[in-house]
Amino acid sequence: MGFLDSIFGGDKPSTKSIEKLVGRVKEAYAQPEYRREAMDKLLSFGTPEAYTAVLTRFTVVVQSPHWDEEEKRWLCDELSTRGEPAKTAVRTFLARADHVAFAAKTLLKLSSSKTEWINDLVVALQARPPEDHRTTQGKTEIINQLRDNADESVVLSVLPYVDDHADDVQLAAWECCEHHYPAATDDAKAAVLDRARHIVTDDVRSARVLRHVGGVMSRLKLPVDPTRPLPPAVSEEIVVADGVLVSAR
Questions:
Q1: CB 24, CB 35: distance < 8 Å
Q2: Domain count, the chain
Q3: pTM of the model
Q4: pLDDT class for 13, splitting at 50, 70, 90?
Q5: What is the mean pLDDT of residues 224-243?
Q6: How buried is 121 (Cβ within 10 angstroms: 0-12 exposed, 13-18 middle, 19+ buried)?
Q7: Within a domain: 227
């Protein structure tokens, strides 16, 4: 019997016992074995509450970068063998938490197909609307997963996030839309063009967002609106030539 078995014995965990184990899982300065035994115990419970609790390990960066990566990869592999109950917990975590890169990898291992996984990521993203100020990193990480692993069908799902309250989310959304733009439908391309032409002349946006959108339009050769002048943040680096934006350098 392990040390934690003597403290948290029994098959059905109490809320108090789970809370104590979460404290151990999230102890950033403890030895790896201390956190690992707590995670093992939560996994052995196998309840929805225990799976939700063990996922909090993904939200903590521990003192050793090596062990931080090792433990998260180990937990990803362990959860991937736990079937539907673990999948349900991971889906909920993706829709709420702010450190979701490893959870996304875990869900991919649990999914029956890549299409199912991508659909779940879109659902998790849409659970965090652009006006949500609480989960900026979570939105950014999900959009980056969609950029690297999805196809052009996600463009219209990601496009609303070019109007997110956070610059980092806006930039991630533009990178995703730009990456998938060449294969997108005509409707999606028209929607991207509409937002880009509006935003690139919106001097309320931050300079880095304006420059980034100008760069996207230049690379994709999107026509500008000739009736609206470019703000200084854009015109310093990009000029209009033959109706499209090109580098001024």
A1: yes
A2: 1
A3: 0.90
A4: confident
A5: 86
A6: buried
A7: no
